[in-house]
Design goal:
Number of strands: 0
Number of helices: 3
Radius of gyration: 15 Å
Distance between the termini: 58 Å
Structural class: mainly alpha
Shape: elongated
Helix content: 55-70%
Length: 66
Amino acid sequence: MSNDYSLTVIILVAAILLLQSIFLFLDARKRNHNYWLWGIVGLIQAPMPTLFYLIFVRKIFQKKSD
């Protein structure tokens, strides 16, 4: 079994990770959260850091009070 990856796949994955990291860094800095942490974590894998950020930091699923 070969582990060769095409150059386009590598560039695509690198672009996705870089864009995710930039988004997390800028949004966390705007909201005064640990922006360096989120920027670095965004470089590790996708899409889990973005989902964790949206759920736990931005609290997008927070219940609305009446």
